[in-house]
């Protein structure tokens, strides 16, 4: 029963947390825009300010229910990517050439069909191109 109470209190606070996230992100965009017009010489200060506000927003988002779910998903995705058997350079090169050759052949076939259809329509309508 305690777990459901904690989840409901977390859920009720999530709206406030997401509001803060949006507030910080809007603050970063608006602050960068206005600082760009006012303080052109302090580019580094603008960059640090925007990065700090985005990092704060990401930190707040990470403690929400959806944020925790996303972090767990990212960890699981990273584990799955490590399991992938990546092709060798030779396999990737050969596959690339096969795709290019098939694409070129398909393009030539479509070009030929287009030419045939243009002549056929021109013959039927009496309009030559």
From TrEMBL:
Where is this chain primarily localised?
membrane
Q: Where in the cell is it found?
A: Membrane
Q: Which InterPro entries match?
A: SecE_bac, SecE_sf, Translocase_SecE/Sec61-g
- One function term, GO molecular function aspect: protein transmembrane transporter activity
Which GO terms of type biological process are on file? intracellular protein transmembrane transport; protein secretion; protein targeting; protein transport by the Sec complex
Q: Name one Pfam family in it.
A: SecE
User: What stretches pass through the bilayer?
Assistant: 15-36, 43-63, 97-121
Q: Name one GO cellular component term.
A: plasma membrane
Keywords of the record? Cell membrane, Membrane, Protein transport, Translocation, Transmembrane, Transmembrane helix, Transport
Query: Could you say which protein family the record assigns here?
Result: Belongs to the SecE/SEC61-gamma family.
PANTHER family registered for this protein in UniProt: PROTEIN TRANSLOCASE SUBUNIT SECE
Function (record text): Essential subunit of the Sec protein translocation channel SecYEG. Clamps together the 2 halves of SecY. May contact the channel plug during translocation.
Tell me how this protein assembles: Component of the Sec protein translocase complex. Heterotrimer consisting of SecY, SecE and SecG subunits. The heterotrimers can form oligomers, although 1 heterotrimer is thought to be able to translocate proteins. Interacts with the ribosome. Interacts with SecDF, and other proteins may be involved. Interacts with SecA.
Q: This chain belongs to which protein, by name?
A: Protein translocase subunit SecE
What organism is this sequence from? Answer: Motilimonas pumila
Organism lineage: Bacteria, Pseudomonadati, Pseudomonadota, Gammaproteobacteria, Alteromonadales
Q: Which gene encodes it?
A: secE
């Amino acid at each position: 029963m305690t777990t459901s109470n904690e989840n409901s209190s977390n859920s009720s606070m999530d709206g406030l947390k997401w509001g803060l996230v949006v507030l910080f992100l809007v603050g970063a965009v608006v602050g960068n825009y206005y600082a760009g017009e006012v303080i052109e010489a302090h580019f580094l200060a603008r960059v640090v300010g925007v990065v700090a506000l985005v990092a704060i927003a990401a930190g707040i988002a990470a403690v929400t229910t959806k944020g925790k779910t996303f972090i767990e998903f990212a960890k699981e995705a990273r584990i799955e990517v490590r399991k992938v058997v990546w092709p060798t350079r030779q396999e990737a090169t050969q596959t690339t050439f096969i795709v290019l050759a098939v694409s070129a052949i398909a393009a030539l076939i479509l070009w030929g069909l287009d030419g045939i259809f243009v002549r056929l329509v021109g013959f039927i309508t009496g309009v030559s191109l």
